[in-house]
Amino acid sequence: MPRVDTEQLRDAYRDYMALAEPGCPPLSDPPGAWLAECTTADGVLFSGYATEEINGDLSGSDWQLSGSAVVDRRGEATLQLEGVAGLGSARLIGIDVAFQYGYGWFQEVADHDGGWLMQPISVGLYVQSSRVAIPEGPRELYVEGLLDGLAGELDQAVEFVGMQISGEGWPGASCVGAPVGMARVQLPEGGWVVLDFGDGWTPRCDSCAAATLDGIFLGEVCADFSAWLDWEETPWGRPR
């Protein structure tokens, strides 16, 4: 499964916007918004509309990008976006919370390796990390939503339903190091396998799930979820 990282989208968008020139695209109100069909003197095409919103400083402590746009860098690379994506952070009663979300379709077409932006993936995903605000503090990760267009034998699409995993020492954790919630994995022929890891009231706490297809029990599926908690400040890089 690719690493879906809104920071990567933000940085790519800003790299493309750095190629703008006065009047192409024309910026409008609110600040950071544009609506255009224009080409710069260097041959960079801006087509469609987009709005970048920042609450805080330019590092993007609370950042959102929305629109339907194409920016074509003289045929060398193209950024396409259709939807809304964002990231943010806050400190709540001694807990550092960071979140990212993306709803829509985002892609960069280029000759270089661009991670998940190089794949035509449709997302409807919200990810939230929480960490007790002390060095190496206990942490928790929550994932909700859909990734569509993935490659592989089974994972054409994966949907997470209230998937949550808590680390050692997390306050009130029903399980430690094992997820609760459900995941749905789409088969190539279109059916969905449901993986039930239990909920907060009836947790399994063994990183295994009952797999069913159309209500028929298929067996048990187990996985290693340690990577879900293998991060320091946030799962996607430097703190915000």
What report would you give on this structure?
By secondary structure, the protein is mainly beta. The chain has 2 domains: 1-122, no CATH class; 138-232, no CATH class. The protein has 1 helix and 13 strands. It has one helix at residues 6-17, and strands spanning 27-28, 33-39, 44-54, 62-73, 77-92, 95-110, 121-132, 139-148, 157-166, 179-186, 192-196, 208-213, 216-222. The protein is globular.
Which helices and strands, and how do they pair?
Blueprint: H1 6-17, E1 27-28, E2 33-39, E3 44-54, E4 62-73, E5 77-92, E6 95-110, E7 121-132, E8 139-148, E9 157-166, E10 179-186, E11 192-196, E12 208-213, E13 216-222
Antiparallel strand pairs: 1-2, 2-3, 3-4, 4-5, 5-6, 6-7, 7-8, 8-9, 9-10, 10-11, 11-12, 12-13
Short description:
This protein has 240 residues and is mostly beta strands. 5% of the residues lie in helices and 51% in strands. It folds into two domains: 122 residues, no CATH class; 95 residues, no CATH class.
Main features:
2 domains, 5% helix, 13 strands, 13-stranded antiparallel beta sheet, 240 residues, mainly beta
**Low-pLDDT regions:** none
Shape: globular
Largest sheet: 13 strands, antiparallel
Structural class designation? mainly beta
**Overall pLDDT metric:** 84
Report, as a whole number of angstroms, the end-to-end distance.
25 Å
* Helical content class: under 10%
Count of helical segments? 1
Number of domains: 2
Order of helices and strands: HEEEEEEEEEEEEE
Query: What strand line-up does the widest sheet have?
Result: 1-2-3-4-5-6-7-8-9-10-11-12-13
Question: Which percent band covers the strand fraction?
Answer: over 45%
What's the total count of β strands?
Answer: 13
Radius of gyration from CA coordinates: 20 Å
